[in-house]
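To whoever is on call:

I kicked off a structure prediction for a single chain this morning and the downstream step that reads the tokens threw a length-mismatch warning. I double-checked the sequence; it's 261 residues and nothing unusual in it as far as I can see. Pasting both halves so you can look.
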Amino acid sequence: MSLKGKVALVTGSTSGIGLGIAEALAGAGASIMLNGFGDPGKIEALRVSIEQRFGVKAGYSGADISKASQIAAMVAETQKAMGSLDILVNNAGIQFTAAIEGFPEEKWDQIIAINMSGVFHGMKAAIPGMKAAGWGRIINIASAHGLVASAFKVAYVAAKHGVLGMTKVAAIELANSGVTVNAICPGWVRTPLVEKQLEDRALATGSTVEAVTQAMIAEKQPMLQFSTPEGLGALAVFLCSDAAKTITGVPMSMDGGWTAQ
């Protein structure tokens, strides 16, 4: 399908899942506003690479997704620089693990601000323009942890459950506006962040990366393989297509059977 002429903003898109989705949307013809943290030189090289490889316009915003004012400014910047904002992918997220009784309050506040409140502020800023245009796609990246829980992840699980609730509310409010709102719920995805976790676990246990990888996946997923940023990107492209125009308010799992249990 073609997204030529559309403009997409993907938060947390300088690496991992967000980058996979941004590149998939660019591959379908959408211009891209990147967002995230990282080395400025590497981000600029990535921006230029997307323009050259896909023949689309690409921009970058360093907005802090924990700050409502910066999110609103990023949306306005996208609309001004690229002419519209048709597709919003709320992907930015962070993680921290600890038991509830020892969970640092500042970590709770930070995770809720980025993983949940950031989604709300992004939708609030983007919806008026989409409604005015009569077309829009909002895709919120939730998680298997938006549907089920795991120990030691109280803030992350709470935030992702909240994201699914917001997705449903927005879908109902926008049902006849031409704007759809859906959530993608990944299981294990092989990203640089996960690679680092695997390497650390292997070092701590004296095992191999291969062994700890299989053990980690098997803890949750019947299917013993990772999903990929590219696969999640392809699902995002489908949700932007005309074929998906009546899919709204749905949590779509790509989790190797995690939540089927």
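Update from on-call: the warning came from a stale cache, not from the record. Cleared it. Sanity check on the structure: The mean pLDDT is 97.
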